[in-house]
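Tip: read the tokens left to right.
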């Protein structure tokens, strides 16, 4: 059985996406996609790669995602799906690249510095 793999990352989330020819079942960490991302509106954007290439319903996806929150995980899955689709057919690049689906979002959380309340937030100044 042929299988295609893509890794996606966003913030602290890492998604491993395996695509196999099938009828469009998407399983995330052992749960159905809709059940895993229950109530997360942005999660449907994770499937944008399938929609852009017209392959929605043609591949089963088995996804393992670790770390981060729902938004970071959904975006990591989006990148993983796009990279896996590229291995299936390199011609999909023309549909995926202009929509930014092959670009890894480099933004990470800035670390907290000592003497401050957050990364940049200074303690409240008191004159007296």
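Filled-in amino acids:
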């Amino acid at each position: 059985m042929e299988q295609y793999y893509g890794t996606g990352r966003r913030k602290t989330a890492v998604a491993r996406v395996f695509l196999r020819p099938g009828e469009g079942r998407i399983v995330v960490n052992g749960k159905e996609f809709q059940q895993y991302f229950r109530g997360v509106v942005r999660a449907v954007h994770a499937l944008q790669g399938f929609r852009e290439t017209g392959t929605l319903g043609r591949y089963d996806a088995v996804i393992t995602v670790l770390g981060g929150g729902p938004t970071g995980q959904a975006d990591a899955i989006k990148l993983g799906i796009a990279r896996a689709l590229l291995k299936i057919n390199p011609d999909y690049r023309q549909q995926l690249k202009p929509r930014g689906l092959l670009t890894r979002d480099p933004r990470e959380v800035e670390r907290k510095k000592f003497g401050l309340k957050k990364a940049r937030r200074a303690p409240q100044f008191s004159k007296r």
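The CA atoms of residues 11 and 107 lie 7 Å apart. DSSP finds four helices and five strands in the chain.
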